[in-house]
Amino acid sequence: MERWARFVLRHRLWVVLFWVVILVAGGGVAQKTTDRLTIDFSLPHEPGTKAADLIVENFHNGGNTSPALVTITVKKGTTVEDSAADIHAAFDQVTKDVPNTRMVDQVNAGGDKAFVSKDHRTAYAYVFYPFPKSQTDLAPTKKLQKSLDAHKPAGATAGVTGLDALAVGSDDQGNSVLVETIIGAVGALAVLAFVFASFLAVLPLIIALFSIMATFLLLLPLTYATDVSFIVQFLVALIGLGVAIDYSLILVTRWREERDHGKENHEAVVAAMSTAGSAVLFSGLTVAIGLLALIVLPVPFMRSIGMGGALIPFASVAVTLSLMPAILSSIGPWLDRPKIRHENTASKGWSSWARGVVKHRWLAAGSAFLVLGLLFAAFTGIKIGAPASDSLAKNGAAYDTLHVLEDGGVSTGVLTPIEVIAKTSDAPAAAAKFAAVKGIQTALVSNGPTSNANGKTVILVIPKDETVNNKTVQPVKDVKKLADTLPGVYGVAGLGTAQVDFLHGVYGNFPLMLGLIALLTFILLVRAFRSVLLPLKAVILNLISLTGVYGAMVLFWQDGHGSNALFGIQETGAITFWVPLMVFAFLFGLSMDYEVFILARIREEYDAGHSTNEAVIEGIGRTGRLVTSAALILFLAFAALASGPGTDLKILATALGIGILLDATIVRSLLVPSLVSLFGRWNWYLPDWLAKLLFIQPSVLHEERPTQESAQPTA
After folding, report:
1. CATH number at residue 336
2. Same domain, yes or no, for 211 and 234?
3. Which spans are transmembrane here (predicted)?
4. With contact defined as beta carbons under 8 Å apart, do 153 and 122 qualify?
5. Is residue 154 part of a domain?
């Protein structure tokens, strides 16, 4: 790292010019990159995906989408039966006005009464549409509404609802990626202004801008090699902002410390790179490992998030460890004005905190484990699935239409129909069998031309209740089990089936992902800390804190203790099935950042001759303010992400934000220093054979001495 720092200083002009070119190029292709991102949540090789693909192949719609429900409500004093012909004509016209759609209503489904509300004032029909391939190709809600308004009976009202329409809610689409990034940047600038109390506060934002543009540039060729999920753009902008600022914060603070200790500017840059720069490098690797582990999952969109997300720490580390020293060596002292805050001594407040934790280490550790234990208890009640319909929107036309159906006595189970593709001749008999399954309201065979093609028919199986999580999906499992025994049935598709397949295909591979991340991180940290116990503790604490995050998600979103007050969203009843994996992949690496920053400094102080307790006090005194500020910056980035559209994105953003705060407070401020103090000399044990295997110097142990309670923070 020292050799690299001196190389950058010798060629700093060329380094700056290189990154300026990258900035311009990244800005030029950013829009093209985002336009090439896709929407695809399929699970290849799973039975539900095969059935969905067969439906799409034959009918060019449905299969892997949640259908829209179009409704017509007649005026008071009349019934649906009074206008049956006009209502059917209006529904029939929809398929003509909106191409590539499949309509199932009461008439073409043999007159089934399930399509009429119990008060006989509202009729509804299903409209299946092609899966959107990009963010600009969304569900045709507005086109459906326009067609209904043009052809509805006189005096009637029409509406469109469904899970996709509810997920959008009102016309307010939430903040764009650019707006979210600006919100996060403004919050970060406020924190940086407090930390540096000088013009240096702007520098990490400049580094973040270069990092984000570099990531978009790196992401473009990946979109040609494979489909990349649209979720990546949010992560690049917001997590890229937070990570780049965090890394810059650590490096710049160490540079100021070295200058305050009397080093000449260039030598201060080299010293900062040799110490904080190494911590940044290892931190970036741990984040990348957590994300790259997603490639072991058999899900294309998760793999693409893993590959695309791994570019974030790669770009952030590259920019921080090259452009930052080039700038600091040139205009760093000029930016460090006014010189209000000094770094020549450790923080008195954080040193006092660490001294208290060391003195009462059993109490500190016990309190932290108590909090995490309570959150773990909440985690045991987690439901994996999709948000319930009443949590997807609090206003808008789709919300109003759903309540018209509910007020008329229609169960929300109609929102999650099961599609079964079968041979046309065997469809009626199969439908009769499906209708008898427990938890199923009815099973329909449409005689409409859009539901019958190439000797195949789609049977519509409607559950009594929404099949949106692992606690309510049993009817789907029973239908799938029955389908395997019936002649002429090719497969079962739908939202419930996708959940069953996801739980089987993805979470079935989760232990492999978990083991891979833990092993690679452990090896990396053994090399970073020259210890066996510290990396083992870091990995275990990360896993424990993640269960705490999941528990907080259950309380906040699943049970609704806070979601309604903060976002106006009712309890979701479940956590979206892909979110826990995303939270694990990002938080495992991001929270390990703080572990690396803190333990690297504690290790440095121990190597300088301090006892373990003294090293803890000095290490926390030096890094406490930085870790807290870095966590706050990331939290603000995630808060900005939560302002975006969609309940799923809000769940992900709040989970990441809660995780960062939980990790920076309970885990890193209480549990880490108390456990390091408790373990004493064992923290630094490293077998000689392992040191040789990893090409590092053996750890040198020295005698522990009592910590002086009245000792002042050392310089």
Report:
1. 1.20.1640.10
2. yes
3. 177-196, 203-224, 230-252, 273-299, 311-335, 362-382, 506-526, 538-557, 577-600, 626-645, 651-671
4. no
5. no
Residue 339, C-beta contacts closer than 8 angstroms, at least 6 positions apart: 198
Residue 9 lies in a domain: yes
Residue 615 CA, distance from chain mean position? 35
- In the predicted structure, residue 141 carries a pLDDT above the cut 70: yes
Q: How many angstroms separate the first and last alpha carbons of the chain?
A: 24
For the purposes of burial, counting CB atoms within 10 Å of the CB of 580, is it exposed (0-12), middle (13-18) or buried (19 or more)? buried
Query: Of all helices (H) and strands (E), which one includes residue 592?
Result: helix 579-607
**Which is more confident, 679 or 345?**
679
Using CA atoms, how far residue 644 sits from 176, 312, 320, 391, 637, in Å, is: 7, 20, 28, 16, 12
Nearest to 152 by CA among 179, 177, 124: 124
**Closest residue by Cα to residue 241 from 270, 275, 205, 267:** 205
Within a domain: 103:
no
Residues 454 and 475 in one domain: yes
Q: Are 387 and 576 in contact (CB under 8 A)?
A: yes
Residue 515: Cβ within 10 Å count? 12
- Does 57 map to a domain? no
pLDDT band at 286 (very low <50, low <70, confident <90, very high): confident
Both structure tokens of 324: 């930052």
User: What is the CATH classification number for the domain harbouring 487?
Assistant: 3.30.70.920
In this predicted structure, the answer to whether residue 715 has a pLDDT above a threshold of 70 is no
Type of residue found at 441:
Q
Count how many domains the chain has. 3
Residue 583's beta-bridge partner residues? none
Tell me which residue range forms the domain holding 232.
1-35+197-344
CA atoms within 13 A on the CB side of 370: 7
Distance CA 200, CA 257 (A): 14
